[in-house]
Design goal:
Elements: H1 9-22, E1 28-32, E2 35-38, H2 54-58, E3 65-71, H3 81-90, E4 94-99, E5 108-110, H4 131-143, H5 163-170, E6 173-176, E7 186-189, E8 198-203, E9 207-210, E10 218-221, E11 229-235
Parallel strand pairs: 3-4
Antiparallel strand pairs: 1-2, 1-3, 4-5, 6-11, 7-8, 7-11, 8-9, 9-10
């Protein structure tokens, strides 16, 4: 699989130039053979979304990665739920930048290649390095279980979503009593939200591994967080 870290600076600069040239529409393209190739955005609402014709993608060779832009002020500089669904379907890394027409942010890459990155000390990036991403990484690294990802928009809990209540049962988890917590169980909490919106891994010794907004991923005592915890789940396969 293509390693985004190997993409040459010159190719990133070519992509950034394409992003600025396309503004105020979203730009898109592919990485093939380690090179950036611009692809027309054929979406009927190109200021808000992008789409590429399959023929336009494949004519240049195998697609190693997909890159596109978000317009600053219209969309958050993180993957949308639709971006996440499309990345999962493509099974290749995706990269995203945000632009105001003058500046272009650094490329943000996501995909399952990130499951092998260190558990501790990751910066919070919604949909890429957040509390559910941390749970997926722990289960992959500690138990070699690849949990499904949950496509999610920025702060989905504020828009009537209930991602964890619906997603975890589909991922193979069953509820267990909080008093029966065991190493590796998932704990779900409600933090300044109308529904369960935070999760972590219970670790032996009274610890929790989790990733909160505006903090680095970490292990710490679970006891200060128990007032937020509403549910415990165990992986049943």
């Amino acid at each position: 699989m293509f390693d985004p870290c190997t993409l040459a600076r010159a190719e990133i600069d070519r992509f950034n130039a394409h992003v600025l040239a396309c503004y105020p529409q979203e730009a898109c393209g592919i990485i093939t053979g380690g090179s950036f190739v611009p692809v027309p955005n054929i979406h009927p609402e190109p200021e808000d979304q992008f789409a590429m014709a399959p023929a336009d993608q494949l004519r240049h060779g195998p697609v190693e990665a997909v890159v596109h832009s978000h317009i600053a002020g219209r969309h958050h500089p993180v993957p949308s739920a639709q971006d996440m669904r499309q990345q999962m379907a493509s099974a290749v890394p995706w990269g995203l930048v945000s632009t105001d027409g003058e500046q272009v942010s650094s490329l943000l890459w996501w995909g399952d290649f990130r499951l092998d990155e260190p558990l501790i000390g990751a910066e919070f990036i919604h949909g890429v390095q957040d509390c559910y991403s941390a749970i997926r990484k722990w289960y992959w690294q500690e138990r070699r279980i690849r949990l499904p990802d949950f496509p999610r928009d920025h702060e989905w809990w504020a828009d009537g979503g209930n991602l964890y209540e619906t997603g975890f049962p589909q991922a193979g988890f069953v509820e267990v009593p909080l008093q029966d917590l065991a190493h590796g169980d998932v704990v779900l909490g409600q933090v300044r939200a109308p529904c369960l919106n935070h999760g972590g891994i219970y670790l032996e010794g009274g610890l929790i591994f989790h990733h909160l907004q505006e903090r680095l991923s970490r292990r710490e005592s679970i006891y200060p967080w128990m007032r937020y915890v509403k549910k415990a789940l165990r992986y049943a396969g």
